[in-house]
Cytochrome P450
Amino acid sequence: MALRAYVWDLSPSRGIAIDVVPKSLIFTILAAWIIYQFTKAAWNVSPLHPLNHIPGPKLAAATYLPEFYYDVVKFGRYTNRIKQMHEQYGPIVRISPNEVHCNDARFVDEIYALGSRKRNKPLHQVRGAGTVAHAIFATVDHDTHRMRRTALAKFFARSQVQRLESKVHKLVQQLCDKILTRKGTPFDVTAAYSCFSTDVMTDYCFGESYGFLTQESWEPNFRKPLYALLRPVFLFRFFPFLMYLSVALSGYVPSFEEVYQKHGELMRRSITKRVSNDMALLIKTLTVDVPNQIQKTKTDIDTGIVRKETTVFGSLLESELPRNEKTVARLTSEATALLSAGTETVSWTMSVITYHLLTKPQMLERLTNEVGQAHDGSGQLPSWSTLEKLPFLGAVIFEGLRLSYGVASRTARVATEEDLVYRGHWTPRGSQTSVSVEHIIPRGFAVGMSSAITHHNEEAFPDSHSFVPERWLDEKMQRRRELERSLLSFSKGSRACIGMNLAFCELYLSLAAMTIRVYPHMRLYHTTEADIKYDHDMFNPMPKASSEGVRAIVI
Ligand code: HEM
């Protein structure tokens, strides 16, 4: 008996059926695969496995099934399960055959060490990266990451952000103007902030704003399509071959670019027919506009045309990176990562802050007074560096960052050249006595932390679910720097957020402008705490699926 396979040429009507694979061969392969999986699971829990001494559930140590169940079947809920594991097993737990998770901020600098101490990203974590597979964000190897990051870093240095700060000022005012002119119509606050952060990101990085703030409504924007791209990523981690489908659809392989150029119009029409307007716009941006812009920048540089303004592409193309790092496909991947990393993070942080300020009038009043005093009365916003000196404004932003988490799901690192030694204390459930804990995490194994867990460590952040900006200030109204160690919103170390300066510039300027100009006229609309509360993650934190978003109205 043999299984039947179909070979298709371009027209389905001309499919040819052929008998190719004997059934017995299929069963043999299947049996071998099952035996292999059992042997692997047995090895993973054997006393010889280097992580055998790390506490945690046996099934998680043996297989990836628990992670699969919570992240793929229950969707984005492994972080919740890991939190329970810490309550049961202590600050260091083994969450999968090759990965350890830590819930102690004192270990942050060991896990997320700086440049000279090598830290890879675990392959399992980036296997589903799809469209951003060639960006720094998904680069596994430490040295390759350093090379790519160094080329990008100067573009995001504080001095560069200050040079381009006027762009953010202009867009902040556009955001406020647009909200204020839509009196009486409820709107999705996160979509509005997403339009703002996308315009900033594209203006700052690509040299031209995508104009989401100048279009008539808040739609289209990239919020939903970016989440749609992220949705299958948990699945790709386990079945990476599925990713190639997405990669092919998104156009990051050169052969696809060729195909696209040949049949672009036909594809564009068929894509547009099948997907929503904003998804079609994102696909077009990433498969046509960005590659074209990179190609044009390349041609300009080759022909000696000097551009008035440097873009991120110009900066990378003129950098010391080797030629194979400067291909259109790789730079498109980097641009996609910037779009994903630099837009929804900012807009979600602002949404969380907005919710809390609009539900806490005294807090809003205190902030309004502080920001109001910093104004010189000219109608112009103070500079980012002036606003940074306002203690309460800074405290509100830090508290907003804490409860918006940044990347909420765990992000792990692999120390390749040294074993990590953890020493700490833990009070087991139901006990009054703290016990000391010591573990060696051998080199070559992943160890990570999750902001959605660390930010609720009651020792560092008492009453951690409440929005309390004051916790960031000491009695002299100075920022409590030691608390920042427990803030993982931007991650830490050599792979921490590269866009942190730009993010802070956006947050300070937009929050100050919204406080002075918009919040006095803005009310929440059918929005409760459930709409901003962490429920599960899709890298970014997500509220309950039934949430209709953070909505407000200007009266
Ligand atoms: C509130 C705003 C932001 C938050 C909370 C945030 C958070 C983060 C976090 C947690 C990481 C580390 C991810 C990991 O370890 O896997 C990261 C990396 C990154 N972020 Fe941000 N981000 C923000 C804004 C931005 C902006 C505005 C940009 C650029 C326009 C940006 C670009 C990047 C890039 C390129 C990386 C990868 C860095 C690397 O792998 O070396 N982010 N971000």
Notes: Confidence is low (pLDDT under 50) at residues 5-13, 251-268. The radius of gyration is 25 Å. The pocket of protoporphyrin IX containing FE is lined by residues 136-137, 149, 201, 205, 337-338, 341-342, 345-346, 349, 406-407, 411, 489-491, 495, 497-499, 502-503 (CB under 6 Å).
